[in-house]
Design goal:
With 258 residues, the chain is an alpha+beta fold. The chain is 62% helix and 14% strand. The chain has three domains: 113 residues; 44 residues, no CATH class; 67 residues, no CATH class. The protein has a five-stranded antiparallel sheet, covered by helices on one side.
Length: 258
């Protein structure tokens, strides 16, 4: 821009000198060609001034367009920078939230694992109270309970399912009267096949084919059975009702409460 202005000033100076020289009176005897040369130089100078001015105007338009484009690029770059800063801030916030949530989940998992271990110990204690038919049904779930809950690789979800499965079966058994065929030692110690009636998880009665009877109740060490041959008739009536051989009727049997 400065170069174009300097060039324009030089051209104007040359044109002025040429006009001044042409305005002086001609010396007698100067050839006419010299005058024509001066006029020609002046015309050429004017043309040069015009071309320079037009070139400068075009260059100014181009420079203005370039400045506007650069300004727009700068604004876009600043907007992208602001967006990136916001994105980075959002990512940091999400990471902090995830870290906080992970810590809370770890605390929650530790608490759940501790409570679950207590439930597993509880259902292990219930195992001794279960009648043999129920034991056979829930033993596969009992075998899945880890021996050491602190070092097991079994997931918490699977351990919960095991505990719930056992409790569901136990609860179902506790609300039913179950008739089962079992092998049980009689009064002389000889094992014999008997029919046993379980009334929930609290009481049971059995009778053998030869009429020996007994009653049982659960203890922390397992079921305890006591001979009760005097109850053989009543127990046989209950069994026949459960087998739909006779009509339902009232039967009185002793119950041992713990």
């Amino acid at each position: 821009m400065l170069h174009a202005q300097s060039l324009l000033a030089s051209i104007m100076l040359v044109a002025t000198l040429a006009v001044a020289a042409d305005a002086q009176p001609a010396t007698p005897g100067e050839p006419i060609d010299e005058t024509r040369a001066v006029v020609g130089k002046w015309a050429a100078t004017q043309e040069l001034v015009f071309q320079s001015r037009r070139a400068w105007e075009q260059e100014k338009v181009l420079l203005a367009a370039r400045v506007e484009a650069l300004g727009q690029e700068l604004a876009e770059a600043e907007q992208r920078l602001a967006d990136n800063r916001k994105l980075l801030a959002d990512q940091r916030l999400r990471q902090q939230q995830q870290d906080s949530s992970a810590g809370e989940n770890e605390d929650l998992s530790a608490d759940v694992a501790s409570r679950l271990a207590e439930f597993e110990r509880g259902v292990r204690q219930v195992h001794a109270l279960l009648p043999q038919p129920t034991v056979a049904k829930v033993d596969p779930l009992y075998r899945r309970i880890p021996e050491d809950p602190t070092s097991t690789k079994v997931s918490l979800a699977e351990r919960f399912q095991n505990v719930l499965g056992i409790l569901n079966d136990v609860n179902q058994m506790n609300g039913e009267i179950l008739l089962a065929d079992e092998i049980r030692p009689l009064s002389d110690g000889t094992p014999a096949q008997v029919k046993t009636v379980y009334v929930g998880l609290g009481q049971a009665y059995f009778i053998s084919a030869r009429g020996e009877a007994g009653v049982g109740h659960p203890t922390p060490d397992g079921w305890v059975w006591t001979p009760a041959n005097a109850l053989s008739r009543e127990i046989n009536v209950v069994i026949q009702m459960l087998q739909n051989k006779i009509k339902p009727q009232f039967v009185s049997l002793p119950v041992t409460l713990q």
